[in-house]
Specification:
The protein contains 18 helices and 21 strands. The chain is an alpha+beta fold and 678 residues long. The protein folds into 3 domains: 52-275, 2-Layer Sandwich (Beta-Lactamase); 381-484, Beta-Lactamase (2-Layer Sandwich); 502-670, Reverse transcriptase/Diguanylate cyclase domain (Alpha-Beta Plaits, 2-Layer Sandwich), CATH 3.30.70. Helix 8 (278-325) crosses helix 9 and helix 15 packs across helix 16 (551-568). The longest helix is centred in the first third of the chain and has 64 residues, at 9-72.
């Protein structure tokens, strides 16, 4: 539709004529395509047939080789143990068979035991073929892979047949290395004086054994070549259009070499594309020339008619419209009487409109003056003023947009009001729009917007509905500096809170935070009637540790112990704190005496497993003693810790590195006892 929007009358007339004759052009094109399709099918049929004939000629070589080797199978010299006699016999046979370059006999292991070149020993050059002979049928001819003969030093492909088992039980095979010049002569005879190509291909090894005309040496490898891939994909023969080995595209027919038993050899015959489509190309050229001449003639005629009957009166009407747009309401337009009635009616309407526009011009001038004064006021305020229609698009933007958002007002007018709002804040802004539509005057909303330079900006926006309800008016103010100050204040408060509740050395809760948590949990325990357990932990012989290793190592020791204690408590409500010096405390809400003792034992083993060396300790490493107490119901903090402290004293007095649990009512038993400080 956008193309039609820019087309003039003349272009439309030409398009109409072209559309009229398009079916005829399409018919011509279809005929040409059909001719090409028929030529393609005929070419493929012929080339496939020629490829099969060529494959039969190559197959004859393998059939002759089978006859020769099959005849030799029964010859006594080949089975005699006399090597000299066998070598001499093979030499005579080779002299009468030019299709071979070498000939000999192999044992079951692939070793040469007889050869036309006397005293030739060692393994056969195509060991894969030699090993395959073990499973070959008595009269079966097997074809090997391309190789450079170790003895002849010529490119060749070996064929072999099994010999009858000797009287000594040996499994022997007779082989012959084919002379590829024989294949080359066959290829040349197939090509003759034509512009075709013939190739004998081994798709398994992706090699071209022979090609005519010759462009590469015998047995050249073409890995991944499209023609070879096509032959490998259709082992029974077929056709393809592909690039050749000389980088020229051709039609290729290919067929397997039937008597090349045990191999994938195939013959390809290539026909140039130009030869395949020569007749069709001539007919298509004439058809295209005639179609172009007819098209040009139709275009010229339609263009002339369009100018006099359509374009000329339209140009006059357009010029009159342009003069009206420029505010020139004089000089009425005239259209000849022989022109179409629609043009004459349009000319009359334009002349009548000119008078009405002249009257409206004065009204428009007054409105523009009013708008100019309003924009002057809006552009000189620091806050950005925006008018939005009921679809959510901006209809007015004040000049403050340059400072607030970095956009010129013209860049924002017509765009959706939500397009600059941060994705996470858009739901709140949509709610602001909804409330502004429903309520005449709403409060301010704070959210983030993206400036033109890509930076995020915090703004405060308030809005109200227009008096005529045709849209909404919003005032936007930059509050990024205020937000930054608020964020800094919040971060400072968080840091102060962390410093006030955290032990500086170990990173766990300090004594002050522990007191707060204990007070909170004792009240909760009283309300809910749930048990509350407390542990007091003391590092055994820590003074001696400091005296031996120094305070730096002592601090490191306390850090590791604090980490082990923190890692051994699992529930979110459980907490640990540094109680003072080498003492720690653990608070376990909703935990009975058994659970607390079990968890204390986990903590004791966790610290022992750290393996911190302590030569002043009888165990050789750092250990801890733990006192545990459990209470149920609301209880004073001092009483709870006094009971835990007494249990800790018993643990240290009993030999350290142990857990002692104390019921709360046992504390009187230890009231007069002292505590070890180590």
């Amino acid at each position: 539709m956008s193309i039609l929007h820019h087309m003039g009358v003349r272009s439309r007339m030409v398009t109409l004529i072209m559309a009229t004759i398009a079916p005829f052009l399409a018919l011509i094109a279809a005929g040409i395509l059909f001719s090409y399709s028929e030529a393609d099918r005929a070419t493929r049929r012929n080339i496939a047939s020629d490829a099969e004939l060529g494959a039969a000629k190559f197959s004859r070589v393998f059939l002759d080789a089978k006859v020769v080797l099959g005849t030799l199978r029964g010859m006594p010299p080949l089975q005699a143990s006399d090597r000299a006699r066998c070598d001499g016999f093979v030499q005579k046979v080779l002299a009468s068979q030019p299709m071979f370059v070498t000939m000999g006999v192999l044992d079951a292991a692939g070793n040469i035991v007889c050869h036309n070149k006397p005293d030739t020993t060692g393994q056969f050059g195509d060991m894969e073929l030699a090993l395959r002979m073990a499973n070959a049928g008595a009269d079966e001819l097997l074809v090997g892979r391309f190789m450079i003969g170790p003895v002849s030093k010529k490119p060749t492909v070996a064929v072999a047949m099994r010999l009858p088992t000797t009287s000594a039980g040996e499994q022997l095979s007779i082989f012959g290395a084919l002379n590829l010049d024989v294949f080359n002569h066959i290829a040349q005879s197939i090509v003759a004086e034509t512009n075709h190509t013939v190739a004998l291909i081994d798709p398994t090894n992706q090699r071209v054994l022979v090609r005519s005309p010759t462009i590469v040496p015998f047995g050249t490898a073409f890995p991944g070549h499209p023609l070879i891939e096509a032959i490998a994909g259709e082992p029974d023969g077929g056709t393809t259009f592909s690039i050749g080995f000389d980088d020229i595209h051709r039609f290729f027919g290919f067929a397997p070499v039937a008597d090349a038993t045990g191999s994938s050899l195939a013959v390809s015959l290539g026909l140039p594309e130009a030869e395949a489509f020569a007749d069709v190309q001539g007919r298509a050229t004439w058809a295209i020339v005639l179609a172009i001449v007819a098209l040009i003639t139709a275009i010229l005629l339609s263009a002339t008619i369009a100018y006099w009957t359509q374009l000329r009166p339209l140009v006059r009407l357009v010029l009159k419209s342009e003069r009206l747009g420029e505010g020139k309401f004089t000089s009425p337009v005239t259209i000849e009487g022989w022109q179409a009635q629609e043009f004459r009616s349009l000319a009359t309407s334009l002349n009548q409109t000119a008078g009405k526009l002249q009257a409206a011009q004065e009204i428009e001038r007054k409105n523009m003056e009013t708008e100019r004064r309003f924009r002057l006021v809006a552009d000189n305020t620091a806050d950005m003023i925006t008018a939005v229609d009921l679809t959510g698009r901006r209809t007015f933007v004040s000049g403050a947009s340059r400072d607030v958002l970095g956009y010129e007002p013209q860049e924002l007018i017509g765009r959706a009001a939500l397009d600059l709002v941060h994705e996470e804040d858009r739901d709140r802004v949509r709610e602001l729009f909804r409330r502004t539509r429903d309520i005449p005057d709403v409060g301010a909303e704070q959210y983030r917007v993206t400036r033109k330079d890509g930076t995020l900006l915090w703004v405060e926006v308030s809005g109200r509905r227009m008096a005529d309800e045709s849209g909404l008016v919003f005032t936007m103010r930059n509050i990024s500096k205020r937000k930054a100050v608020e964020a800094e204040l919040e971060a400072a408060n968080s840091q102060l809170l962390r410093l006030a509740t955290t032990d500086e050395l170990t990173g766990i809760n300090n004594r002050r935070e522990l007191n707060r948590l204990v007070e909170l949990e004792t009240r909760r325990s009283g309300r809910e009637g749930q048990p509350l357990s407390v542990m007091l932990i003391d590092v055994d012989h820590f003074k001696a540790f400091n005296d031996i290793y120094g305070h730096v190592e002592g601090d490191r020791c306390l850090k590791e112990i604090a980490a082990a204690i923190s890692g051994a408590i699992r529930r979110p409500a459980d907490s640990c704190a540094r109680y003072g010096g080498e003492e720690f405390a653990v608070l376990l809400p909703n935990t009975d005496a058994t659970g607390a003792s079990n968890r204390a034992e986990v903590i004791r083993r966790a610290v022992a497993s750290l393996g911190i060396v302590h030569s002043g300790h009888q165990q050789g490493h750092v250990t801890i003693s733990i006192g545990v107490t459990t209470a149920q119901g609301e209880l004073g903090q001092s009483a709870l810790f006094e009971a835990a402290d007494q249990a800790l004293y018993v643990a240290k007095a009993g030999g350290r590195d142990r857990v002692v649990a104390s019921a709360l009512d046992m504390r009187d038993q230890f009231a007069d006892s002292g505590r070890s400080s180590d």
